[in-house]
Amino acid sequence: MIRLTALNPEEVTGKTKDLFNAVQAKLGVVPNMMRTMGNSPAVLEGYLNLSGALSHGKLSAKTGELLALAISEENACDYCLAAHTFIGEKLVKADPAVLHAARTGNSTDAKTEAILQFAKTLVSKNGLVNDVDVNNVKDAGVSDAELAETVGHVALNILTNYFNNTANTEIDFPAVQSLALQN
C-alpha cells in the first residue's frame, strides 16, 4: 500500500512546481520518488542539491551508482534498487554483472570494492566506524576527498532508502528485489 501520495506534476504550484520543472527539464520525466518528495519541497530540494553536488565530485557517476546499489541492498530498498539498476545499465552503461556484484559490495576493481565495503560498513555501524575501517579504505588508494564523498553518498542514499521504504513509493522502473528478500 502506498503510504505517501505521489503528486501530479500538472497540479502542483509554487516551489514544488519549480523543482518538478527542473527535474523534468533534466530527466525528461519526474520519477515517483521525486513526485512523492514534492510533498515537502524542502526534502526534494535538499535531495536534489546534495545529489547535484556529489555529481561534481571526485567519484565517478558509475561509482555513485554502484554505491547506491550497495547501500540500497543494505537497506532493502526495492525502489532504489530498481532505479539505480536502470540508471546503471541505461545511463552509466555498466555491465549488469558489475551492478549485481556491487549489491553485495563486490567489484573486480580493488579500489571500488574498498569504497563499496566501506559504505556497507558505514551503514552497518550507523556511521560509527573506527580507525581500522578508515585505514582499510585508505590503504586501497582512496583519497580523503573520495572518502568524504563516500560518506556523502551513504547519507544521500540512506535518505532516499528511508524515504522510499517509509512512503512505499510505487516503483516506476523495471522491478528489482532486494537479495535479502529473495531468500
Automatic annotation (TrEMBL):
Keywords: Oxidoreductase, Peroxidase. This is Carboxymuconolactone decarboxylase family protein. It comes from Flavobacterium circumlabens. GO terms for molecular function: peroxiredoxin activity. NCBIfam families: ahpD_dom. Signal peptide: none annotated. The keyword Transmembrane does not apply. Residues 41-85 form the Carboxymuconolactone decarboxylase-like domain. The keyword Transmembrane helix does not apply.
